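User: Hey, my collaborator sent me this sequence without any context and asked if I could get a structure. I don't really work with proteins. Can you help?
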Amino acid sequence: MKNQFLYVAVLSCFVLFSCSDSELVENWKNPEIDSFQAQKVLVLALYNDKENRSVFEKRLVNELIAKGVNALNSDAFFMDYEADRPYTEEDLEALETQLLLEGYDAILVSKVLGAEDKVTLVQSYRNLSRSFEDFGSDYYSSQDLYTQEDQIEKYVVYHAQSVLYCICPEKERQVIWRASIDVTKLDSDKKAIKEYIKMLLWTLEEQNLLISSSKF
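Assistant: No problem. I've predicted the 3D structure and written it out in C-alpha cell form, which is a compact way to encode the shape of the chain:
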C-alpha cells in the first residue's frame, strides 16, 4: 500500500510538473509519521555559493511564512558562527540543544549534491511529440538536423536533496522526510532556485508536512 501511495504521488507530480524545469526523483516519508507541523523550523542550505545560499534560504522562508509556517533562515540562528564552520559532531550536538532551547522542533536542510552538463538536439526533441503520416512530411520537418550544430542546446542539471529532521526532545534527529530533485538551469541560478522551491513546497504539502493542505 505504501509503495502504491508513493507511485501515485510521483505520478501526480510528473503530470503537474512535466513542463517544468524541475523533476522529483525521490520522495520518501517516514512510515511512522502521517503528518507533521512544526512549531518553529530552521531553514538551512548547504552550498558553496554564499550569495545563492542566502537567496535560497530567504525565498524558501518567505514562501513558508506565506503558507502559515513559522520558519527562519540559518542567519537567524547561526549569526556570526559562519566563520567557525566546519563544526565537529560535538559542536552540532550543542547547537541542536540550543535550537531546542530556542523553541525549534524541526530543521529543513537542502543541499546541492552535484551538477552535470546536458546537451540536447532541440529540433529532434520537438519532433518526438509529432507524428508523420508519410516520409515526405517527416523528412521535411527533420532536415534541419543536417545543420545540427545550430540546433544544439546546452544546459546544466543540478542534483539536489532536501531533508526534514525532527529535533523533538523525545526523538533524536529523526528523519521525517527526504526528497531528491533535479533542476535544470537554462538561463539563471535564480530561476533554478525558484523552480526547486516550487517543487519542494508542492511535495511537502502533498505529504502534509509543515504545510497543512487542509488550510490552502
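In plain terms: The domain at 2-120+154-206 is CATH 3.40.50.10610 (Rossmann fold). You can pass these C-alpha cells on to your collaborator as they are.
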